[in-house]
Amino acid sequence: MCAAALVVLLSNVAVAFSAVDTKNLVIKALPKEIEANLGVLNPNTFTVSGISAGACMAVQFQYAWSTIVKGAGIIASAPYQCSGGSLEGAELCLNAPELESASSLYTGLEINAAAGTIDPLSNVANQTIFLFSGVYDTVVPQTNMDNVYSMLEMAHASRVTKFFNYSAEHAWITDKYGNSCSSLGSPYINNCGLDFAHVFLKQAFHDMNQMWNDTMAPLLTNNFYTFDQTQFGASSSISMANTGYMYVPEQCKSATAKCHLHLNWHGCTQDANSLGMEYVLFTELNEWAESNNIVILYPQATANILQDNPNACFDWWGFVDSNYATKDGTQVDIFRQMITKFGGF
Ligand SMILES: *[C@@H]1O[C@H](CO)[C@@H](O)[C@H](O)[C@H]1NC(C)=O
Ligand SMILES: *[C@@H]1O[C@H](CO)[C@@H](O)[C@H](O)[C@H]1NC(C)=O
Ligand SMILES: *[C@@H]1O[C@H](CO)[C@@H](O)[C@H](O)[C@H]1NC(C)=O
């Protein structure tokens, strides 16, 4: 879910099967001995992904830190700085995307790059970018993603793949988990017969000249851990939870393998306070991460009524600070610190 005003959307569609007892799942804190083996991950294979408000954050981050982001999987984002830094602006992006101008939003990117508040736009050319926009997305209508795409073209992005052709509503897209593809409702994970995590990561690894193991591992619930987000400055006053989650593949628990790093941002109402572990578990990212030695960070937003953010969205309309879309953004800076701490770059 992208914006604050969209709380009321509910669904009668039942969530599909799950072999995992999410209610009784206990996630342990990251043990010190495993943490000691992190911080040495591959700096040349860092990728990000997100859905909805989390996709807006992924787009912000992919431009702000394009020197380190080698690939981005973006599902249902508004274009960069579309909100103009206000809730009214954010709602306008969602309700009247035909009023957006990709070229003037691109000028905003150029201004930020010239000021050095985001990395040079030239890095975007070599990023592997997968865009997904459901034909039936009623929350972030497809025009938004047309503009996300146009702006990437303006940045001469040469490795962009568009999935704008599925009969999908607004959701993270999977091959076997969640609501039916064209339905709208919590947990906003839809089974569209497309393993988005797989197609994106496989292509990104190919483009990064990395080996790819195309055997999907089972979901190993023992490999999820919590980590302390407050060490990076997270608190409810900036709409970030005290606790984040991470997936550490078996091989990456010891220092023997050269492991990779991926960062995924959930959408509004998909944080652990709202959904428990459902989003963290079922994006289908973890099974591919296991086969391919990718550590995944799942930072957590939290609701803050005073910031007009009752749905635990990440900041894409400036409710924390006006620098929200740049390296100076409070939340963006926290993610950057997480990468330094757990990735080492
Ligand atoms: C949908 O788009 C993807 C990505 O461009 C493409 O690979 C696929 O063949 C398309 N599917 C259909 C049914 O057109
Ligand atoms: C693009 O990325 C590939 C794989 O990481 C790398 O080998 C190549 O040098 C990059 N090209 C440019 C122009 O940066
Ligand atoms: C590929 O991944 C599967 C599932 O995790 C694993 O069983 C297998 O050993 C892996 N193959 C290689 C060559 O690493």
Automatic annotation (TrEMBL):
UniProt xrefs under InterPro entries: AB_hydrolase_fold (IPR029058)
Keywords: Signal
Top-level division of the source organism's lineage: Eukaryota
SUPFAM superfamilies (UniProt xref): alpha/beta-Hydrolases
The keyword rRNA processing appears for this protein: no
Keyword Calcium (UniProt): no
Signal peptide: 1-18
Protein name: Polyhydroxybutyrate depolymerase
Organism of this sequence: Bodo saltans (Flagellated protozoan)
